[in-house]
Amino acid sequence: LIAIEAPTLLSAEEAGKSALSAKVEYSRDIKPVLKDRCYACHGVLKQEASLRLDTLELALRGGESGPAIVKGDAVQSRLLQRVLATDAAERMPPEGHPLSKEQIEKLQQWISDGAPGIANERPEEDPRDHWAFCAPVRAALPITSPGEQSSHPIDAFILARLKQENLA
After folding, report:
1. Which of these, 164, 46, 33, lies nearest to 110 by C-alpha position?
2. 34 within 8 A of 96, measured Cβ to Cβ
């Protein structure tokens, strides 16, 4: 086993001196890391510890252990605590390499800056809800007027749509 030195939280002074003093953007710097490293266990298909991280709102709501992110308080944010854990059983992500020092610094800076997100951010859609995976359902035949007799069921649908559009 290779011993990996765990990165530590930067003091406010160090963070200010850091090259990351530029504004960290959620959509550019944070969300791609979460998607790449966290969604497999905390996304739409699987929610370990009842935690989803595919939107900021869901991360703020948190899971069984409480909120994953505390806006403006990187030290109290469980997401950062788990990313920085020195115990391999506690550190996230549990598989693969730990987040890089730069990724952790950006995550810390973003949380310290108040964790600004995307307005009206929508969670990922469950791929199992795609129409191709839904069982087909036979539509009920539209009711036609007595004078609009159709010789085939498809004609009933066509006549109903023509009537809806006020076409003859």
Report:
1. 33
2. no
Alpha carbon distance 66, 68 (integer Å): 6
3-state secondary structure of 47: strand
CA separation (Å) from 68 to 3, 30, 61, 63, 74?
27, 14, 7, 7, 10
With helix as H, strand as E and coil as C, how does 110-144 read? HHHCCCCCCCCCCCCCCHHHCHHHCCCCCCCCCCC
**Residue from 21, 34, 3 nearest 105 by CA:** 21
Q: Which residue in 30, 26, 77, 79 sits closest to 52, CA to CA?
A: 79
Residue pointed to by tokens 């944070």: 30
CA 117 remoteness from chain centre: 12
What does the alpha-carbon distance between residue 109 and residue 111 come to, in Å, rounded to a whole number?
6
Query: What pTM does this model have?
Result: 0.69
Distance CA 107, CA 28 (A): 12
DSSP lists the bridge partners of residue 63 as 66
Structure tokens at 67: 């909120």
Closest CA to 44 of 36, 52, 35: 52
Q: What is the pLDDT of residues 26-79, one digit of tens each?
A: 999 999 999 999 999 999 999 999 999 999 999 999 999 999 999 999 999 999
